[in-house]
Target: Branched-chain amino acid ABC transporter, permease protein
Amino acid sequence: MMDNISGIKKIMNVVITGMAAFMLAGCTVAKSSSGDGTKQDKDSVKIGVNMELSGAAAGYGNAQKQGIQLAVSEINKKGGIDVNGRKKKIKLIMRDNKTAISTSASVAAQLATKEKVAAIVGPATTNAGTAEIPNITKAKVPSVSPSATDPNYTLQKNGKVQPFVFRACYQNNFQGGSAAKFVMNNIKAKRVAVYTDNSSDYGNGLAKAFKKTYKGKIVDSQTFSEGDKDFNAVLTSFKAKKVDAIYVPGYYTEVGLIIKQARQIGIKAPIVGSDGMADPKLVQIAGAKNASKIYYTTPFSTQVAAKDPTASKFMRDFKNRYHEEAPTFSALAYDAVYMIKEAIENEKSDDSAKITKGLEQIKDFTGVTGKITVDKDHNPEKPIAVEELINGKVGKTFKIE
Model:
């Protein structure tokens, strides 16, 4: 669902440059998922978690941690994963990558080669996920990211699929295009301003996809960066241009302030965004009274989920365990664990290379975020929705075809 918080520290650019050659070489070590991978003992299956539990993306990472732990607890209470007729409990090994690509790479190496996990859940962000690819590829250990949305995340430089990289969320091209369709068909906005978080590939990718699909007039296109606090000058210019809607692809930290300041200067037009807004902190920042006519694309709608037996059970169990409503990122991470379970049971093996094959072949898997089929590029084919906020609460939910 989301990309990297890439504006965290400019010094990381040095790390990226230094790792680039290593990544390119490492990503081509294994050309297929055939052959032996890591082995598990007779009583348990080790699943690693490489997650942003601190740093700029900790809000997303900790929500995903909750979904992972709930899934593992449920599976273990039922005896564990059925591995060719033998029930084996999940042993969860969780590590914090600190929202840093260098740490993510070292965490992946530790999980894959020292701990010898069968599979990894995470990271949450695209760049942290990309950093782990050389190490998981060399070890033939698959990874399922709940929320890395950059279109190129699962692909090598030559366009071929990364053999051990999967995700439980849809990619930015689909999400940005769906937002454009919603703005045209539901809001019927003919004049739109685009206000993009340009400090990450997440915001830029969504904006590009939106502009490609939207058929009305884009009257203005401006950018902001992670950590910005004052958006009044740009918003005032949008107001003068009498926009029908504003598309703001970014994270809740900045989008919450944009909503608050837009409403304070009298902008009443709908504000539309992406799944980076799908966090309760958005309303805390914006203020409930300002959070009306706010829309965002999401893979997990609580209203849609309430009508689905699998999703509604997840929502009840989550609330009983954590005493709060289940956020989108917890649902995606929960599905990621169950995708790994599905792959193990279908292949009747917890060898990591065999699990990879099982993930490739997932079809019509019933997740809490909808039916999931993994395509040739290791992306899930699944439904998307748009939620509307009214006074800070979810009002209507729209399905986007």
